[in-house]
């Protein structure tokens, strides 16, 4: 199976004058994550490096905590696309926040050897990443 990396430059309208630079930034982040996977690196390492590139790039409105960014993204999703769903934001240090617009939404995130997961809003379980791997 070939690895896949998908990134996005945020929610909302990108002004014409920023479009080309934004495209360059997301392409750079995707290529960086993909290169890590191609060399046998972990998915978490690929995501953290791709996110770090974007957070350190002034073309994007990064610099928010994972909690702030996930709250903003969820608000946008609810207001603009009437979406039921969720948002998980990972920062360049591997910290994350998960926000959901419904009471029940399965989610999972791996960080520093731990798998964090839940099914209901506010539910949060932790177990070692390696525990159930086959």
Description:
It is a single chain. This protein has 134 residues and is an alpha+beta fold. The chain has two domains: 1-62, no CATH class; 66-128, no CATH class. It is built from three helices and five strands. The protein has a three-stranded antiparallel β-sheet, with no helix packed on it. Helix 1 (16-38) runs antiparallel to helix 2 (43-55). It is globular. The two termini are 16 Å apart. 18% of the residues are buried. It holds the Pfam family Asparaginase_2.
Instruction: Report, as a whole number of angstroms, the end-to-end distance.
Output: 16 Å
Rg over alpha carbons: 16 Å
Low-confidence stretches: none
The mean pLDDT is 75
Strand content: 15-25%
Task: Bin the helical content.
Answer: 25-40%
Q: Going across the major beta sheet, what is the strand order?
A: 3-4-5
Number of distinct beta strands: 5
Features:
single chain; about 130 residues; alpha+beta; three-stranded antiparallel sheet; 3 helices; globular; Isoaspartyl peptidase L-asparaginase; Peptidase_T2
What's a concise summary of this model?
The chain is α+β, with helices and mostly antiparallel strands and 134 residues long.
